[in-house]
């Protein structure tokens, strides 16, 4: 049985706080993890904004929107599922990770890229990378909301 | 836009993203950014240079 610390009388909040590990993240009960993840997917950076990481949220939004704008400017391919091409499912999942930008590009603007454009493949790389980065943000927002990460 | 500039822009976006996502302290972010950015750009240049002896054939004309 551990001896109580003579310099830290029991019942004193400061003394208890000093005994806690300094870098142990705890979940905030106000944070709704599924909502944060959904928000993070829908609008890049919004999950982090909801969780109070506002500086990082703005930076993530700028980075992912830059990837989207460059990808579209290059007329890159926006993946969609093609029959008989199983790998197109992975490409589509990667692009769909963009959330709202993907939905707007595909279903509102009818964008799909220009196969004879010089930047078709480069643009596709930017679009898929933007989607994959946003999927990582979804996982990060989930972990922060659950107290797994700081 | 040239291939090289696109590669630099791509490396920049990805490096900043992972540096901010994976590191919390400023010094760690700068170190990881430099590692990723220089690794991608210099690695890409090294690969391109190593592939130089291999013939690529005439460029395909765009219609």
Describe the structure.
The complex is a heterodimer of chains A (150) and B (63). Chain A has 150 residues and is an all-alpha fold. Helices cover 58% and strands 0% of the residues of chain A. Chain A is elongated. The longest helix of chain B has 25 residues, at 26-50. The mean pLDDT of chain B is 90. With 63 residues, chain B is mostly helical. Chain B has one domain. Chain B contains two helices and no strands.
Report the average pLDDT across residues of chain A.
Answer: 85
- Which shape of chain B, going by the Cα principal axes? elongated
Main sheet characteristics of chain B = none
Oligomer: heterodimer
* Count of DSSP-assigned helices of chain B: 2
Q: Cα-atom Rg of chain A, whole angstroms?
A: 22 Å
Greatest interface (CB-CB under 8 A), with counts per chain: A-B, 20 and 14 residues
User: What is the H/E string of chain A?
Assistant: HHHHHHH
> What is the percentage of strand-forming residues of chain B?
under 5%
Terminus-to-terminus distance of chain A: 32 Å
SSE class of chain B: mainly alpha
- Compute the average pLDDT of chain B: 90
The total of beta strands of chain B comes to 0
Binned, the helix content of chain A reads 55-70%
Rounded to an integer, what's the Rg of chain B over CA atoms? 16 Å
**Parts with pLDDT < 50 across at least 5 consecutive residues of chain B:** none
Broad shape of chain A: elongated
What's the short version?
The complex is a heterodimer of chains A (150) and B (63). By secondary structure, chain A is mainly alpha-helical. Chain A is built from seven helices and no strands.
């Amino acid at each position: 049985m551990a001896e109580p610390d003579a310099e830290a009388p029991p019942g004193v909040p400061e003394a208890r706080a000093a005994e806690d590990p300094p870098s142990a993240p705890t979940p905030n009960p106000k944070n709704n993890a599924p909502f944060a993840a959904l928000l993070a997917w829908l609008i890049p950076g919004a999950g982090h904004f909801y969780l109070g990481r506002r500086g990082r949220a703005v930076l993530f939004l700028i980075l992912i929107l830059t990837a989207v704008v460059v990808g579209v400017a290059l007329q890159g391919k926006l993946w969609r599922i093609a029959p008989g091409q199983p790998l197109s499912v992975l490409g589509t999942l990667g692009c769909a990770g963009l959330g709202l930008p993907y939905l707007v590009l595909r279903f509102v603007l009818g964008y799909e890229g220009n196969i004879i454009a010089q930047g078709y493949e480069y643009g596709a790389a930017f679009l898929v990378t933007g989607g994959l980065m946003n999927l990582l943000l979804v996982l990060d927002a989930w972990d922060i909301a659950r107290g797994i990460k700081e | 836009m040239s291939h090289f500039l696109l590669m630099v822009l791509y490396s920049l976006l990805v490096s900043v993203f992972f540096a901010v996502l994976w590191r919390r302290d400023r010094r760690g972010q700068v170190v990881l950014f430099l590692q990723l950015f220089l690794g991608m750009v210099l690695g890409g240049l090294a690969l391109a240079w190593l592939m130089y002896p291999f013939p690529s054939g005439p460029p395909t004309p765009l219609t």
